[in-house]
Amino acid sequence: MNRKIDPKRYQMYQKIIKIVGAVSIFISIFLIAYLIRGLNIFKEPDALAELIKNHMLIGSIVFFIVQIVQVVIPIIPGGITTVVGFMAFGPVWGFVLNYISLCIGSLILFWLVKEYGRAFILLFVDEKHLQKYERHLSSKNFERFFIFNMISPVAPADIMVMVTGLSHMSYYKFIRIILLCKPFSTIAYGYLWIYGGQWIQQFL
After folding, report:
1. Most buried by CB count within 10 Å: which residue of 31, 59, 146, 195?
2. How distant is the alpha carbon of residue 118 from its chain centre?
């Protein structure tokens, strides 16, 4: 059952989220510029790992929390942090951190929509876009459509998680799909940007 939200408090949440969204975009642009120009990650992909090697424990904890937050508050560009995770912690530990944090974040996001319904989604997505995704809910193939989006490295995963929260999908089925699908999209997205960037750099 969806909880009711006080209208005045809801408007305050919307304003806060817009501010956080604007700040996150600015930080993301700065981070990208630093990675490309400051560390030259396309030519030296291990530069970031070398930078934090003496702070691995703290770095892992901070990154883990950031990844969960960027899923629960889907206005922070999660793709950037996923790639940073692989570059900073390597292919194995980077995958573990990304995979577990993204799964936890997705479960929290799914739960929030179950609790607050469309009102929660509309904090991040406008009505027009939400309706476009909601049309898939009535489809007999919605579950397959959701699985495909969870596997795809370029699909709007966070939005799909929220929309799925409006469906009758059980927590058990949702968790099972997330646990099975997230490894594919996480690895594909990370390596697509890391090695794709290196490939593009050869032609620049």
Report:
1. 146
2. 19
Q: How far apart are CA 129 and CA 133, in angstroms?
A: 7
| Run of H or E including 49 | helix 47-52
Residues 103, 153: Cα–Cα separation, whole Å: 15
Read off the pLDDT of residues 46-63 as tens digits, 9 standing for 90 and up: 666 666 777 788 889 988
Exposure of 171 by Cβ count < 10 A (0-12 exposed, 13-18 middle, 19+ buried)? Answer: exposed
The length of the chain, given as a count of residues: 204
Higher pLDDT, 54 or 177: 177
Q: Which residue has the tokens 């960027």?
A: 70
Q: Which two tokens stand for residue 104?
A: 């936890």
